[in-house]
Amino acid sequence: MNLDLPDPTAVISEMSAELWNSAVRVLDKNWAGDHMVPSRRLYPHQWSWDAAFIAVGLCYVNPSRAWRDLRSLFEAQWPDGRVPHIVFDPHTAEGDYFPGPVFWDVPAYGGRRPRGSTALVQPPLHAVAAWEVYRRAMSHGAAAVREAHAALEWLYPRLVAQQDYLTGHRDAGGAGLASIVHPWESGLDNSPAWDAAMSAVPADLTLLQKYHRRDLDVADAAHRPTDVDYARYLGLVLSYRDGGYADAHLARDHDFVVECPNFNAILGAAEIALAQIAGVLGADPQVHRARAQRITTAIVDRLYDARSRTFRVLDVRTGAHSPARCISGLVPLILPDLPAYYADDIMTEARSARFGLPQQTDLPAPSYDRTAADFDTLRYWRGPVWINVNWLLRRGMLQHGYRDEAEDLRTAMVRLVHRSGEYEYFHPMTGEGIGEPAFSWTAALSLDLLADRSIPAYARAA
């Protein structure tokens, strides 16, 4: 035996502890009193689906903060049920973030103006997060269990209202799926999945003379949307605002109306989580199970492209699928009722050279087809690796029995963040951190990945 070699178990444990402690420090730094910010510099407010991902990991170290973050978000819920994609921190100056609350100018409803927020939404992962936080409360003692039960009682009707809004007001296609009316609603803001639909949106570059892009003051322009894209983003908001943020006749009156497989897969997963929550609270879980099945069926019927055997974004206005092959098309794997045929197709796509699961690349899946001519290693959502969607993909793999590949993906995510840090996203070739450092959902999901059999993840990679 070579006594000079370190004990592998000790090395693995030390690496796991380093990442755990580092992630906890990020979440402590980004806590803003009653909510978590994604990062202190570029994202100084509360973001909707960020709060869901953050709660999943934050509950391991501070479940009370996880519940408070979710509650803070839903305290800004609109009377129609929509949960805004940003809730503005009143202590942050208007000039510190654009577009801020003055730009959005959300209307008053019944004499009550929603808390300072946007009028857009994001993927409704919150029911999934609430259920995960509740499950883990069992290991925190009786007081934590009581807190969790009370939190579910408060959240449940609000989560139901969120789902009702999305499957009702936003069902522009008439098939029970939610349409998004802005790329920002997808969470995958700058994805090539939107390019075809966005090409019909006017790009008024004079808007960039009137409104200053503050993101370019603190971030590399090569990482951010182009000016043409940003002008279209602002134009869509202004058009929606001028219409009072109303959702009637979306397909007729709005320039961008699409059904996204990522958004709607999460919509379906939320119903599965709500069925679990309803069971705990004594409500009827079957209502949610039935709706989840209907959503799954609609995703298959409308978003599956039989020619390429992939799930694609659908432009509701034109009836055309996006030609882009993006990671959003892999996320329907999280649906437990997805037939095995379609799950196998998703895994075939994920294993292909386009996404190259860790067995091929030793990195998590990129956000866009690696083989595409416009694959971009730096510009966000147009190529870089994101931990949150890979976390969803792993969840789907476990759901459908691809356990070895799920473990390989977990290993790749843990190793990447340990090596490069808790960045917003990562270079899809080198693994270098890109975007904001000390990013909350990367830190929080690292805790979740470590808590789930952390030593085997590093042991297999050592």
Automatic annotation (TrEMBL):
Pfam families the record matches: MGH1-like_GH
GO biological process: oligosaccharide metabolic process; protein N-linked glycosylation
SUPFAM superfamilies per record: Six-hairpin glycosidases
Ranges of residues in domain Mannosylglycerate hydrolase MGH1-like glycoside hydrolase: 43-442
Annotated keywords: Glycosidase, Hydrolase
Family matches, as InterPro entries: 6-hairpin_glycosidase_sf (IPR008928), 6hp_glycosidase-like_sf (IPR012341), Glycoside_hydrolase_63 (IPR004888), MGH1-like_GH (IPR054491)
Molecular function in Gene Ontology: Glc3Man9GlcNAc2 oligosaccharide glucosidase activity
Family indicated by similarity: Belongs to the glycosyl hydrolase 63 family.
Protein's name according to its UniProt entry: Mannosylglycerate hydrolase MGH1-like glycoside hydrolase domain-containing protein
Taxonomic placement: Bacteria, Bacillati, Actinomycetota, Actinomycetes, Micromonosporales
